[in-house]
Structures are given as C-alpha cells and as structure tokens.
Amino acid sequence: MQPKALLSFVVLAGSAAAKTVFSAISVNGVDQGHGVGVRVPSSNNAITDVTSNNIICNTGFVQPVSTAVIPVKGGDKITAQFHHYSAGYLGPDPSDPVDPTNKGPVLAYLAAVPSATQSTVTGLKWFKIGEIGYNGSQWGSDILFINGGNVTFTIPPCIASGQYLFRAEAIALQAATSYPGAQFYMSCAQLSIEGSPSPKSPSTVSFPGAYTPSSPGIVTSLFGLSSYTTPGPSVFTC
Q1: Are 85 and 62 in contact (CB under 8 A)?
Q2: Is residue 135 part of a domain?
Q3: Structural contact between residues 170 and 47, judged by C-beta atoms closer than 8 angstroms
Q4: DSSP structure class, residue 37
Q5: How far does the signal peptide extend, from start to end residue (predicted)?
Q6: What is the dihedral of CA 128, 112, 64, 99, to 10 degrees?
Q7: For residues 127 and 111, what is the distance between their CA atoms, to the nearest angstrom?
Q8: Fewer Cβ atoms within 10 Å of its own Cβ: the N or the C terminal residue of the chain?
Q9: Structural domain harbouring 188
C-alpha cells in the first residue's frame, strides 16, 4: 500500500460521512491478508450510539468471519489497514481510506479473552495502547490519509501472554457539534500475544461505557479548535 499525497478538494455544504473500514492488519510490516484475523463489518456506515454494543467491534460482519488468530509478540508493530469499503482497496478513490475533509482521532485498544475467535465481545476489559489525536495542525485522520490507510501501534511488551482482541477505531468529528454526531468506525482483530513473564496489569474500561455522550472529545466543534482531548482512558505504558 503506497502512501498518497493529500488531494485538493472542494468542501461541499453538509460534509459527507467519513465512511471507512478497518479490514486488515500487518505485523512488523508483513501484511496478513485482507480480512485475515479481522472481523470486517460488511457496511462502512458509522456507529453513532456510544451506549450500543455495536461500539465494541461493530456489527454485520462479512461472512464467514475469519477464524485466523494472528501471532504477535510484545514490542511488535501492528498496523491497522483502513479503506473506504469493506472489500479493501478497490482502486483510485478520493475518499480512500477516508474523506480528507473529515477530521478526528485514531485509537487502538486491547482486551484479553479466553479465545480470540469467541463470538461474545460484551463484558470485556479494554486498555488503550495508542492514540493519534490532534497536535494543533494535524489529526490522526490526516496521518491515516497520508499513509494510504495505515496506522501503526506497538504491542506493549509488558502485558501477559494470551489471546486478545485488538480494536482499532477512527472517529470522524465533522458533525460532532451535538450528540449523536461523532461517527465511530472500528473493527476487532484476533491476536495471540507472546508477552512478558512478569506482566503488568493495565487499568481497563468497558465498551460500552468508556465513552459517554458527555465525555471529552465526543461533542466538539472543528471550527477554531486549538486543542482536543481524545476520548477514553489514558494510553497504557510499561
């Protein structure tokens, strides 16, 4: 996947939905294949209700859902690959991986699970392993666009070995001046992590619950914005 230059664009009244899908991963630069080990939603429509179970891993997955579990080690670089459609990259598209007029953060979480292929995702305990918010001039979504849909996070080297779900999420804020308005795009990938023999226990949150309609970063205006607080917990560090 080749990085692409930012395109010039005309901002139309009533900005379109961001519409993006996390549908593949690479580990240390090695592409695992489209949909391999990832629960890919069949629609690129946004989740807007932060109280819904759909905020966990999305809904309406492409069938059959992959049964692959991707082996990784603590310290590995895992790249979430986003594209405009569930099928992945389909050719030149000014809105691939996301419409460049849409702005917002990109975040990543992990949750330990008995089995990475289990269908049940409610009741899990999630910890944030990375976020790209707003630095005053550039959003996580800008990085996503410039990198052709790729955003990379590091698996913490100090977590316990076991099976995990990896939740990568892009949030679009162009309609977030009231609730519901923010648009959430996420999927979950299935990982088996070789961690530390002396692991740390991160503080965790639940989905739904980690975000509320009044949480910082959920209702915001992009106009005249000088700083932005990314929703959810702090990033876990070793």
Answers
A1: no
A2: yes
A3: no
A4: T
A5: 1-18
A6: 0
A7: 7
A8: C
A9: 21-194
Q: Count how many Cα atoms sit within 13 Å of the Cα of residue 64 in the half-sphere of its side chain.
A: 4
What pLDDT shows up at residue 14? Answer: 31
235 burial via Cβ count (<10 Å: 0-12, 13-18, 19+): middle
pTM over 0.85: yes
Task: Summarize pLDDT for 131-169 with one digit per residue, the tens.
Answer: 999 999 999 999 999 999 999 999 999 999 999 999 999
- Specify the CATH number for the domain of residue 59: 2.70.50.70
Count of domains forming the chain: 1
Name the residue type at position 110.
L
Q: How far is CA 113 from the centre of its chain?
A: 18
Please state, in angstroms and rounded to a whole number, the distance separating the CA atoms of residues 55 and 187.
9
Is residue 148 within 8 A of residue 1, CB to CB? The reply is yes
- Residue 202 domain-assigned? no
d(CA 46, CA 51): 14
Cα dihedral 36, 74, 125, 200, rounded to 10, equals 170
Token pair in block for residue 220: 């915001």
Residue 184 to residue 191: CA distance in whole angstroms: 22
